[in-house]
Amino acid sequence: MPTHVIAMPSSWLARQAITTACIWSTASWVFCVHTHLHGQKHGLRAMLCLPCAALHFALLPYLVDSKSDPLSVLPTTGLLSFAAFKIIALVMSRGVLMHVPQQYWHFMAACCLPIIPEAAFAASRASKHTSAGSRQNSIHHEAASLLSRAACGMFACAALHIHWLPRLAVYWLYMFITCMFLGAATDCFALLTTVLLGMRLAPSFDRPYLSGSLTEFWSQRWNVTTTYLFRYGFRGRCMFCVRAGQRA
Known about the structure:
Blueprint: H1 12-37, H2 42-63, H3 73-91, H4 104-112, H5 118-124, H6 128-134, H7 139-159, H8 167-197, H9 214-221, H10 224-247
Helix pairs in contact: 1-2, 1-3, 1-4, 2-3, 3-10, 7-8
């Protein structure tokens, strides 16, 4: 019997267009549901919003091509997954979207982009370093951060061409370049959001190379956006359900 296989779009532009359209349309739908229900009828909200998050995960195999376009794997996977996790957290009455003003563009920016508003961090006390640093964020600070990370990344890439470097130094440089690349990418989104919407955002990377321990590096300084989503979006509610089940 003939089998029907959904083909992956061959064009990079087509894949990015589908990714953008998927995130934008699902975020618009979630915004309409959230504003009309006013935080009530949680079952109905879950029924209407969870399929949007499932669609993001279902489209990943068709929008990511690690063989012909490996550079787009991380941003495509990150944008789709971040939006999906934020929607799931909203269904659980937690997370980023619960602390965003009920305005369309603010909600869309918080849902579609890998950013965390300062109000969400302040409400959860996600990181003592980031919570303190977010109060000093401004357009000039974010622009300077973007330029400094880009410059540091370029110097580190140039240093990789030194042949007599020890292997440990090469590994450290790769880690440093990854940190600078991810930090610069999030700075671009943060700068754009701050300029256009005036939102105050918490930095996604809080100088992880200054960590005093592995725990501080992973939980308080490195990619605190992802840490926030999992720890305060899911772990808290899951632990509450587990404890409630044990008491019952």
